[in-house]
Amino acid sequence: METVMTLQDIQLIAFDLDGTLLDSVPDLAVAADQAVQSLDFPSVTEEQVRDWVGNGADILIGRALSQNIKVDESLDLDLLKQARVRFDEYYHQGGHQLSHLYSNVTSTLKALHQAGYKMAIVTNKPSAFVPDILQQHGIADLFVDVIGGDDFPNKKPDPMALNWLLDKHQVSAQQMLMVGDSKNDVLAAKNAGCHSFALTYGYNHGEPISDSAPEYVADNIAELLDVLSVSQ
Question: Key word Repeat present in the record (predicted)?
Answer without folding.
Answer: no
